[in-house]
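Quick illustration, no need to memorize.
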Amino acid sequence: MNIALGIFLFVISILGLALFPLQSVNADDLLSPRQQMASGIDAEDVECKLGFTLMIRSTNGDAACVKPSTSINLSNAGWGNIIKSAIEEPNTPEEPNTPEEPNPQEESEENVIEIKISDGVGSGDR
């Protein structure tokens, strides 16, 4: 029985080592865009931390990871081009953008306002 346990642990260890590179990169382990480019990664292939947008600077082609709101401002100012937006999910299937048609019956039931106007003089509504 000890031999079976030993083989089982050995197989699990080998599988763990084989699958380790498939794990996602921890945000703390990501190098800065400058460090990634210095190590030979193309500017377009730089990985940004979660929630940041990859931009390529117009003047020198360097990569930068910025907040999404900043990327829009920089792009509008001509500073650079947005390459990968923070809102993009590369491995999720896209669903078609089909606007939902409002149900007219629901609108009429929810949006009814009844107004009663009286002149207040001799109408008996007091």
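Residues 51-86 form one domain.
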